[in-house]
Amino acid sequence: MDISIERAIATYFSQWLAAHAYLAWIISHPLPSFGLFLLTIFSLWGLIKAVGRGIEQIWLFLLTTPFKLLLVIFRPIWSSIRRIFGHNNFSDEQQRSLVMPNTAPEQIDRIIDRLHRLNQEQEILLRELSALADPASVRSAEGIVSDTQYRDLSAKLPKFN
């Protein structure tokens, strides 16, 4: 009896392998089959990652689009409000120089003038800073703070980390 059960299982298995020839090839060629198995696993893994990245990009697009639309709507309104109340970062002359191209000598003169004004503003701010940090600090005769005085003043200021 035992032999007939084994023979029945063997015939069933051989018929099944005959019906599924690719499985017979996989069983008879284990090394290439293992390579194909790894290739299939990595391909599916890459496909799943690509689908995940695509879904992430879709969600980011869907969640940021309303804010981008609001930005498009409110940016002109905000800039007009800033123009009405005069809260722009550039003077009229600077805005004109940004809009209209100048010749090189005129532009050089404007840049030099602006640098001179910025230098004067820096000197004023450094004097105010020295007065606030240490009223008894030594100032030069011209009212300009030297590099060493500036370093001393910056060392006295509290550090915010």
What attributes characterize this protein structure?
6 helices; 161 residues; mainly alpha; elongated
Note the topology.
Blueprint: H1 2-19, H2 21-28, H3 30-85, H4 92-99, H5 104-133, H6 147-156
Summarize the structure in short:
The chain is an all-alpha fold and 161 residues long. The chain has six helices and no strands.
How is this structure best described in words?
By secondary structure, the protein is an all-alpha fold. Helix content is 81%, strand content 0%. The chain has six helices and no strands. It has helices spanning 2-19, 21-28, 30-85, 92-99, 104-133, 147-156. The longest helix is centred in the middle third of the chain and has 56 residues, at 30-85. The termini are far apart.
Helix content: over 70%
Give me the strand/helix succession: HHHHHH
Biggest sheet details: none
Q: Overall 3D geometry?
A: elongated
Strand segment count: 0
Q: Taking all residues together, what is the mean pLDDT? A: 81
